[in-house]
Batch of 3 targets.
Target 1
Amino acid sequence: MKTFREDFLWGGATAANQYEGAWDADGKGPSISDMCTNGSHTSPKRVTPVFEEGTLYPSREATDFYHHYKEDIALAAEMGFKVFRMSINWTRIYPTGMEPEPNEAGMEFYDRVFDELKGYGIEPLVTISHYEIPYALVEKYNGWYGREVIDCFVRYCETIFERYQDKVKYWLTFNEINSGTMPMGSILSLGTVKGFSGPVNTVPDEKQIRYQGLHHQFVASAKVVKLAHEKYPQFKMGNMTLFATKYPNTCNPDDILRCQKEMRNMNWFTSDVQVRGYYPSYSERFFEEYDIVVRKEEGDDEILRQGTVDFFTFSYYMSTCESADPQIRATAAGNLVGGVKNPYLKASDWGWQIDPQGLRYSLNEIYDRYQIPLMVVENGLGAYDKLEEDGSIHDSYRIDYLRQHIKQMEEAVKDGVDLMGYTPWGWIDVVSASTGEMAKRYGFVYVNKYDDGTGDLGRRKKDSFYWYKKVIETNGKDLR
């Protein structure tokens, strides 16, 4: 019976805008995440076009990987990481995105990080753009709505590919690119919020702008994948999607068709383009229904065909149900998208429904569709962790969540899925992307940082640290 392969990539995941800090150090410019205030489970974070004195912008310091990278990588190595998912901060390389030459201090920082990882035999998995874009490109071009940003991104990729060609093998172009199908993606991914100021849940829902911006991201992604395949054959290029598994609320055919439509628009649309190399047929009706006209330039379709990815990666946290009945409200929260509550599932402190079997189901659905290697690059439980007087953190709830999901990953492997790795989200505590808070913790490592901005940034191992170390040592066999 199949189990995890011997070269399975066990590790953990982070993102520069939520982890790195040092927002203005050594020539770094502001990204859109640096313009977001803190928030909470009940009070949304805000976007401000200019910095407000006395307001906390949590990405400015985050949990300060910039000054703790040696300590943190040593902790990852102690757990036995085979892979370390991280992102490069675009504005650390090109502060406005438009400079003719890169910022050498920023380049040297990532040289040091990659060298540190190599010293421990850890493979970096680098997301090129993880929920950040230079704020100067937001102001000048309305983010990815401006086609000019494609060239800015390609130049950025040419720079990092050439510099780190002997240090990085695995690359992801855009984090959760399908977030651009939702209004929140205007802020997180697309940067199409020129002139906007206010709570993130009030950003205008301008589908025409979002889907045009998505097209430009598709073209940019395909161009750099094509570049990598031609010039750096040692690279493996992947996409990254937010997989929000959905079930029909009932066996009513209306619910089933509604669920199919939502799965297509939310989960399949962007990856169909990035993996198959063309817009899916069902997108035509969607565009017609919402009066969306995607403007393409000559050669765009050929670029999409030539720039398909080598492996598929995704985040998985929860599932929801879909109902065609307007009387049934969407009452379950989720990773940027909610839905109808499933009565068979429990939920996290943030209302995200816990569905380990949904991961097995999702892995099978994805692999059946694309038949390329898969990797779960985000998964985990955001929870309130209690720091005991003796410095310990007993997070049995997190261990149980991860145990159940790893079991289902193994079942998917037995089903025939080609699964290459697993990097649980926020292996060390980071700032929440959706709410801008620290209280929602995911990590195996606790960071002494709080929602009022206080804390000495000290690192402490949680119980889950030792548990995950054992999981890696046994290649997933010992989950006790």
Target 2
Amino acid sequence: MAEERYARTIGTLTAEEMGTLSQKRVFVAGCGGLGGYAVEMLSRAGVLHISVADGDVFSRSNLNRQLLCTEATIGASKAACAAVRAGEINPAVQVRVHPAYINEENAEGLLRDHDAVIDALDNVPSRLLLERCAETLDIPLIHGAVREWFAQIAVIMPGDRILAKLYGEAAAATPSVPPFTPALCAALQVSETIKLLCGRDSPAKRRLLIFDLLDYSVNNIM
């Protein structure tokens, strides 16, 4: 019944591109606000090989914005819940679950053999590590971050080092995040990921774009 499952996707993507997506491997770093939505969309889009990593568990403060957080999942592993959700959407999706934070010791091993990495992390040091590791392994990194009414994305090709230029080594304070900006940001990240995996070009490559949901402006920072 695969034809019926993807009937409404064909047209946006070709049948050949759908076949390509089914063979690609995507790593999602973080399974909270951005990552939960990313896993949801990747599973529905036909990406059948997904790896997820997150050492955190859901808390009540996540209920306002994290798709996988419900009253029933409070205290549960975010990474494990992402795998369960993917299976509910499509049993053909194979999810590798890593209930651990990304660090200097495990990053390279976790990211190796993937075709794209989605940055759904929530702190600057881990993002910078992810960028360095993706560059070492020659894997494109699709960055996303949210704060209040703003969502930012960047398609970072190996060698761009956009996050290193943007953040340096500075750490950011915990931001206010409403329910809607993670959904928008993750949608942009997944659309860019699918373009990359299908071999399509994107104007977001090597750029940092900031979307303002208050006035609908888009700023190009780099």
Target 3
Amino acid sequence: MKNFITLEGSEGVGKSTQVRFLKEYCEKNNIDAVFTREPGGSKIAEEIRKIILDPDNKEMGDVCEAFLYAAARNQHLKDIVEPALKQGKIVFCDRYIDSSYAYQGFGRGLGYDFVKRLNQLAIGEFLPQYTIFLDLSPQEAFLRKGGADKADRLEQAGSEFFDKVYQGYKTVAEQEKERFIIIKPTGTKFETHDKIVEALKQKGIFPDNNAESN
């Protein structure tokens, strides 16, 4: 879907910071963009998010979790993403369908095909035009983050789970090379931001003023 950009990566890679930097960049350069997140982004989807991430819901089954993510995604699309795209805006979403592939398909072991079939019902034609993948191993990411968040049910899943999630991301990125923009966040957060902006200019999402002047 044209102008629909998602950001992905394991816990602690710095997605939230990069989303904030992108928002500031768009505001500074008068780029008409909407910033949102998953799970959540709209009223009902945010309520589903609370259920998914609540650490008290330890008994939640893996299939139930996958269905809740898909339900939140469907509502979020209806409320936020689809209207913004129809208005000609760029939509940046912090996590989307690739999180389900990585976390539920690979991490939980439900399988890529199961998650794909489920989410085809939820999203229809609304696949991202590009997906920015912040490629950092979970060991490095959690070290930078300072450990797992005890208030987040998913972050308590353990290192083996997050290794599977990371490998899931790598597998999907390899399968969909045209869609994935792989960014190594190994420098400073500002250097990572510059890499993302340059990549989006090359893809024609952001205007490249230098190219125009040449």
